[in-house]
Amino acid sequence: MFNWRTKEKIIKNILLFFAFSSILFLTGIIIVLFKEGAPIFTKVGIHEFLFSSDWYPTYEPPGYGIFNLLAGSIVVTIGAMVIAVPFGVASAIHISYILPQKYKNIVKPTIEMLAGVPSVIYGLFGMKILGPFLQKIFHLPTGLTALTAMIMLGIMALPTIVSLAEDAITAVPKNFRDASLALGANRLETMLRVILPTASSGIVTAIILGMGRAIGETMTVLMVAGGAALFPANILKPVRPMTSTIAAEMGEAPVGSSHYQALFGIAIILFLITLIFNIFADMAQQRFKKKVSGE
Amino acid sequence: MSDNKMEVKNLDFYYDDFQALNKINIPLKSNKVTALIGPSGCGKSTFLRTLNRMNDLIEGTRVEGEILFDEKNIYDPDVDVVALRKRVGMVFQQPNPFPKSIFDNVAYGPRIHGLKDKGKLAEIVEKSLQGAALFSEVKDRLDDSALGLSGGQQQRLCIARALAVRPEVLLMDEPASALDPVATAKIEDLIAELKKDYTIVIVTHSMQQAARVSDNTGFFLMGDLVEFDKTDKIFENPTDQRTEDYITGRFG
């Protein structure tokens, strides 16, 4: 029917279309986000939108300040990192340098499996086990608090951090380790002075991607954070991060209303934050590659 | 006291069930260069790494026999491996400077052994770089990254880094195999210079190199030490037929 030259051309173009489709989808998402959300910035002003803490989208007159939601997301994410980074980096060190190979082959995939658990299951655990537990030990009116969300997000970010940090540490050439040990350094000195400094930018990448996981997580925080749009001054009180706000309210916001636009506005902010995280993660990754390859 | 800095007695070495070294006996004389030659996989590098116990890092390895270092067996249970490695320095086949500055590379050893005094550190760094015949080339850029140096310079930096902890024995695992002829010649001159202060053991693929730099030579074949003698004797009048076959290029 066709000669081989035409056939090859057709196949090439089909593959090209698929290759570009993900870029196409991303562009589409960005366009929709800004088209639907941008009007709120002109309506209430960017400054007011970001820094006012009056989130009363259904009141009269309404308030569209997302400061408490933004702060909720940031505080919960930082809290999650305070938990996940020490645990994650310590496990990464242990897996890469202390654990015998045969156990490593079991432990690492197991930790990575944690990443595949649906977030609603983490939510259930936080809601029904961790929440009541915290409520009991701190004598709280509700166990669904910022702290609950921090712990759950910390656990959820762990597999990302462990897995990527372990890759980074393992990618440090073994001859750096040998050189250090041959100079009479012990294993701890070798780890702290040679391996971790060399792996540091790779570990930073792991942490930033873990943060991205935490700040974008929706279902779990919706279930365990308590949902009050208060400034997170006390981590033992409920908070409402940006993601759960969008998820909880979008269903009730009339299409095209200011409320609807404001929720898209939040999505824009969230999108920009994760975009920045990814850019930084990528920059750190490039630095790491350079360092390890010795250029 | 004998003039043996180290003395290897009936050393067997195993990777799991595989025996890589069979009953090795070698005296390593003070302030001499001992070369270890043999075809790939003959056990010469494995042997070298038993001298500072670097093989301990490999899972499933086992040693029998003893290696006396100033009359004390380094495989005794009470030996501090970290202290041993401070006294027995090592230079690797691939130059492996840390991704740090030239200064920090050389100062690494003294620093981990507790030296903080900046003046003293600077002094040791300068001395070690001079000892490795590198100082004049890098004295104006000690704070630059070591990774910007050429391969030959990196290898001399690694030698300087090893010298900075003032070892008594220096092990070199094919230190010139990744270098060009000019850089190789520099390393060889350096070895001749260094033996005044150090006992040197060098593994090499190049028989010419062994002949040029060493006082004694051991020929390894399939985990056995076939012959050990003065270098001249090994190269001019070897006792064992296999040694002669190897050095005349009939195999290997």
TrEMBL record, chain A:
Annotated transmembrane regions: 14-34, 66-99, 111-131, 143-165, 194-215, 260-281
Molecular function via GO: phosphate transmembrane transporter activity
UniProt cross-references to InterPro entries, sorted A to Z: MetI-like, MetI-like_sf, Phosphate_PstC, Phosphate_Transport_Permease
The protein's name in its UniProt record: Phosphate transport system permease protein
Family statement drawn from the similarity comment of this UniProt entry: Belongs to the binding-protein-dependent transport system permease family. CysTW subfamily.
Coiled-coil regions, chain positions: none
Source organism (scientific name): Halanaerobium salsuginis
Source superkingdom: Bacteria
Keywords: Cell membrane, Membrane, Phosphate transport, Transmembrane, Transmembrane helix, Transport
Record-linked Gene3D superfamilies: MetI-like (1.10.3720.10)
PROSITE patterns attached to this UniProt entry: ABC_TM1
Keyword Ion transport among UniProt keywords: no
Pfam families the record matches: BPD_transp_1
Subcellular location as annotated: Cell membrane
GO biological process entries: phosphate ion transport
Function statement: Part of the binding-protein-dependent transport system for phosphate; probably responsible for the translocation of the substrate across the membrane.
Domain ABC transmembrane type-1, first and last residues per copy: 70-281
Keyword Transport found: yes
Topology relative to the membrane: Multi-pass membrane protein
Example of a GO cellular component annotation carried by this entry: plasma membrane
Automatic annotation (TrEMBL), chain B:
CDD domains: ABC_PstB_phosphate_transporter (cd03260)
Record GO biological process: phosphate ion transmembrane transport
Residues annotated as domain ABC transporter: 6-247
Membrane topology field: Peripheral membrane protein
Compartments where found: Cell inner membrane
Xref: Gene3D superfamilies: P-loop containing nucleotide triphosphate hydrolases (3.40.50.300)
Any single GO CC term annotated in Swiss-Prot or TrEMBL for this entry: plasma membrane
Molecular-function GO term, any one: ATP hydrolysis activity
Pfam families: ABC_tran (PF00005)
Principal subcellular localisation of the protein: membrane
InterPro entries, per the entry: AAA+_ATPase, ABC_transporter-like_ATP-bd, ABC_transporter-like_CS, P-loop_NTPase, PstB-like
SMART domains, per the entry: AAA
Keywords assigned: ATP-binding, Cell membrane, Membrane, Nucleotide-binding, Phosphate transport, Translocase, Transport
Role, per record: Part of the ABC transporter complex PstSACB involved in phosphate import. Responsible for energy coupling to the transport system.
Protein name: Phosphate ABC transporter ATP-binding protein, PhoT family (TC 3.A.1.7.1)
